[in-house]
Design goal:
Alpha/beta knot; seven-stranded parallel sheet; 6 helices; 7 strands; globular; SpoU_MeTrfase
Length: 172
Amino acid sequence: MSPAIRIRPRRELRAVRRRRPHRCWGHLIAAPLWPMHGANLGTLLRTCDAVGACLAVPPFDWVDGALARGNTLRQPTCVHRVGNPVRWLSGERARGSRIMGVELAEEAIRLADLPAARQRTIVVLGHEADGIPVEALDVLDSVVEIPMVGTGLSLNVAVAGSLVLYKLAGLV
């Protein structure tokens, strides 16, 4: 016989979660710097809130609207605007951040083997069709691969980023 399942009431959930949004978590940053679809940015923003991460986005005109539509929490969130992605990543690496790409590559760490982040880590997510641009690959310290058994070659940015962020946050 299986144990009874107890659903936790909202009051109990709120008691164990943070009281108000934090301006900048800083430990984990999701960086979809070459986005294809605005809906993915909104979804990834929600995941960032859930795991205590920030989001770094390019300054495209449509990004702010996509984030506003996707922010279903309707609270301020931590979003960094990035002008030149490669220059920004290089600067973050020089300041001691670990730069990790989500990409299919030789020497990639399998998602299941990825340890929780112990230092400031930036998760670089490429364009859904083209991946991470070649000029940005040299900036990466490591690459994580999400194994797939289906016929697709990749997951969308929001799903891939969410999986990696939860693993790096130590929540799975």
